[in-house]
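Researcher: Let's do a round of design. I'm pasting the structure tokens now; please hold your answer until I've finished.
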């Protein structure tokens, strides 16, 4: 049975391909976060990550790093994500913006629920206001 997560993964994989971003999956330690590299236009995802519910948002986040041209190997997983000027916050914002069209594509405006979006993609709670604002901006 084809799941919502698989469909979202296909959406992001297609998006990455259209933007010449390579996605690689590796079985790493369950606590090794994903990473990306702008120079090589690539993302490495950990298929053994301890919380698979985070895969979609993580992938959107890493794609966002590449799209924004964040230089070098990005390995700031344990850095502060909440500072609005931080590279990680901007990648999270990019991830939200990347996932909103997918989330909204088969919904009418009245059925859009920020909490549902955040739950589906395991979006960090501190981004609630961002999700609400970006959903409003979408329409």
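Researcher: That's everything. Go ahead.
Model: Designed sequence:
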């Amino acid at each position: 049975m084809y799941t919502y997560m698989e469909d979202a993964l296909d959406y992001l994989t297609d998006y990455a391909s259209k933007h010449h971003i390579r996605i690689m999956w590796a079985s790493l330690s369950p606590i090794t976060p994903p990473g990306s590299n702008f120079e090589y236009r690539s993302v490495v995802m950990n298929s053994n990550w301890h919380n698979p519910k985070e895969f979609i948002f993580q992938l959107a986040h890493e794609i966002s790093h590449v799209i924004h041209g964040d230089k070098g190997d990005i390995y700031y997983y344990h850095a502060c994500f909440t500072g609005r000027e931080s590279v990680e916050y901007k990648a999270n914002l990019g991830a939200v913006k990347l996932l909103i069209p997918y989330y909204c594509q088969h919904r009418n405006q009245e059925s859009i629920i920020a909490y549902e979006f955040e739950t589906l993609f395991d979006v960090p709670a501190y981004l609630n206001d961002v999700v609400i604002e970006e959903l409003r901006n979408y329409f």
